[in-house]
């Protein structure tokens, strides 16, 4: 089964951070996302891998 894409609010809840933190740091830190029109979508498995890889700098 294919993993669903989620919005930034789901990512913030998953990581237990504020949405504003994600907006301020995600681009600089290279959080993987998919741009669909004007919206960004995420896969939680990729977010988890990114967080694990960047845990010292977050």
UniProtKB/TrEMBL annotation:
Top-rank lineage group of the source organism: Bacteria
Residue span(s) of domain Helix-turn-helix: 8-55
Spans through the membrane: none
Record InterPro entries: DNA-bd_dom_put_sf, HTH_17, WH-like_DNA-bd_sf
The protein's name: AlpA family transcriptional regulator
């Amino acid at each position: 089964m294919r993993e669903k894409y989620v919005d930034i609010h789901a990512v913030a809840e998953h990581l237990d951070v504020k949405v504003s933190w994600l907006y301020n740091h995600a681009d600089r830190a290279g959080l993987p996302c998919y741009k669909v029109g004007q919206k960004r979508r995420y896969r939680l498995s990729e977010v988890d891998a990114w967080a694990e890889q960047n845990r010292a700098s977050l």
